[in-house]
Design goal:
Two copies of one chain form a homodimer.
Chain A lengths: L7 E2 L1 H14 L4 H16 L10 H9 L10 E5 L2 E5 L5 H19 L1 E9 L6 H9 L2 E7 L20 E5 L7 E5 L6 H10 L8 E2 L5 E2 L2 H6 L1 E2 L5 H16 L22 E9 L6 H16 L15 H13 L1 E2 L2 H14 L9
Parallel strand pairs in A: 3-4
Antiparallel strand pairs in A: 1-12, 2-3, 4-11, 5-6, 5-11, 6-7, 8-9, 8-10
Helix pairs in contact in A: 1-2
Chain lengths: 354, 354
């Protein structure tokens, strides 16, 4: 069964395994640590699509030289703006280094903008929100990705599923983290439905002719629809402007998919805006306001049938606590792929607990 | 008929009328010009909900002293961050002055953040995007507003319809302007359906118990649903954090509705982030990239039944050109209200052309 095929993995051991494989591929220990931490953290938070299931494709592309194991990440500063050439690094490496450089700039100016080009898939945007929140900073993060969403009125994907994320630190509660793609649904869910021969709900996708379809196989020939129709299209476009056009990265269909064969780098771009909250108001005052805000939202009278009103970041945090305690369940297919990597790189895969 | 009841108004004359009324109310000429320009520009662009139909309520609240005619707008700078006390000005006045102060900061630092508190309804966010684009700058703008959207799982509105806007300058084409609320639909459309005894589509609203409804009257007892479900909820919350919590403004249900009677100021907050594009790359290079981006999007193969692929800002610009030429049509109810203001303030309402 998906999710609990072969027991549960200890998070720290799984992180150590990923780090070991990445180091065997030539990544410096600090870079390997960031990538491993980002992947395992995604699993802990229930975002399995951005977790250790990505390690095999990362490893393959690094091995082939299509992603750089020892990139030269170059940061150029102008005022409070950082232009970063990711050197075709793994996206986590480019983004982490870019944000490390940006944090002191935000201390100095109150705000810092970061444009990253020549990068790759950066994992979850939530990861960078958490990094900012630890510094008492808010973050707006975007990234582009290979084509998945049609422009409104079109029948061919142009934009990636282009997430936008917002992170806001809190005092006691888990941080407020909004991390949403511009699409109605992840393409992975359509792939799954097609594999199982199931229909998909209306409003998810169009076929190759741009007609709405509930046939999962036909949808895979077409494209995913933007969130809420024209508004999601507009959002995907704004994210592409920030992450792709303005950063100097590839944009639209010029962003290459690491899952497809071929030698070109992905050319992914990211955009980050860091806000040092202490410049807006004393942190104590800010935290008191956030406490009130969250408290009021959670106390909203519930709709019929709803158990609880959650705020963005809460579900992710609960999963994190639960899986940190119970371990990470992985589907059999992922375990098999990791075992293969273990053999290839001589890094033992930790045993799962029953 | 809505939209073309009594002929068409010449935009400049209509602007002059609005300016005259606002000056009679005590606004300084420059402030009156900005508000009048923002309102008429909204009509020209087809956003009638934010056009001259707002003048009567603005006038009433200024007359009652609930909105300040001669506000002290105070701007405090710290690094590249501006904290602005709007002095309970009309939102257009506070926002325009705040952005005027922020533009030189963005020249200096490459980026500037502006947090406005103690403000009011600021008209369309697109207006400020246009202001930034004229300076070769991109803008991210948000504002909160009186409660309209339910938290996901709740049955009582907490957030405003909380728009987020993105403006990006272009060389030849109309600027790229995304200006979207976090709700599925404007509350005004539900009011209209209720007046006409028509049902509303599923997915627009919940009734007073938080149950989805297609009964427009029941929906007015409940709340509008967020765009795309939980994602729109998360977006409304992020906009509220930026515009309300972080700015020091009112937030959630503490934002007062100017349409409701009572003495309290609205306490609306806005957030602006200005990006001076020349810090990202030479403007010529940027414009060439945007040209390519827009050209490719417009050349996307069309879906069955779609006539054209438009980018955000194009429809607005076409309406602007058409109405600048043909004049602005106003519904009879709006004309009656304006005629009443004309009598009250001794400012003649211009005649409409047939």
């Amino acid at each position: 069964m998906k999710g609990d095929g072969i027991g549960r993995y200890h998070p720290a051991k799984l992180t150590g395994f990923c780090k070991g494989v990445l180091e065997s591929l030539g990544l410096p220990p600090e870079d390997a640590r960031v990538v491993a931490d980002s992947l395992v953290r995604a699993n802990l938070e229930g975002t399995d699509s951005h977790g250790v299931s990505r390690l095999p494709i990362y490893a393959r592309r690094v091995r082939e030289g299509r992603i750089s194991a020892r990139p030269e990440v170059r940061v150029e500063r102008s005022g409070a703006v950082l232009r970063v050439d990711g050197g075709n690094a793994l996206g986590q490496v480019a983004s982490y280094r870019a944000l490390e450089a940006a944090i002191p700039v935000a201390w100095e100016a109150g705000i810092a903008a970061v444009a990253v080009r020549n990068s790759n898939h950066f994992g979850t945007a939530a990861y960078y929100c958490q990094m900012a929140c630890r510094e008492g900073m808010a973050l707006i993060a975007t990234t582009n990705s290979p084509p998945g969403i049609v422009p409104w009125g079109g029948r061919k994907a142009y934009f990636g599923t282009n997430p936008i994320a917002f992170g806001f630190p809190t005092r006691r509660e888990p941080p407020v983290i909004v991390d949403m793609s511009s699409s109605v649904v992840a393409r992975g869910k359509i792939i799954l439905a097609a594999q199982q021969g199931l229909p998909i709900p209306p409003g998810w996708a169009v076929d190759g002719e741009g007609r709405e379809t509930t046939d999962a196989a036909a949808a895979l020939q077409g494209a995913v629809l933007p969130l809420g129709g024209p508004k999601g299209y507009a959002l995907a476009l704004a994210v592409e402007m920030l992450s792709g056009v303005l950063s100097g990265a590839a944009f639209g269909p010029h962003v290459n998919n690491i899952y497809e064969e071929g030698a070109s780098p992905s050319g992914v771009g990211h955009s980050f805006i860091l806000l040092d909250i202490a410049r807006w108001m004393p942190l104590d005052e800010y935290y008191a306001r956030v406490d009130q805000f969250i408290g009021e939202i959670k106390a909203t009278p519930r709709a019929a049938g709803a158990e609880e009103v959650l705020y963005p970041g809460e579900r992710r945090y609960r999963a994190f606590l639960e899986k940190t305690r119970e371990g990470i369940a992985l589907p059999e297919t992922v375990v098999e792929e990791l075992a293969e990597l273990a053999g290839q790189y001589g890094v033992p895969l930790p045993a799962a607990a029953a």
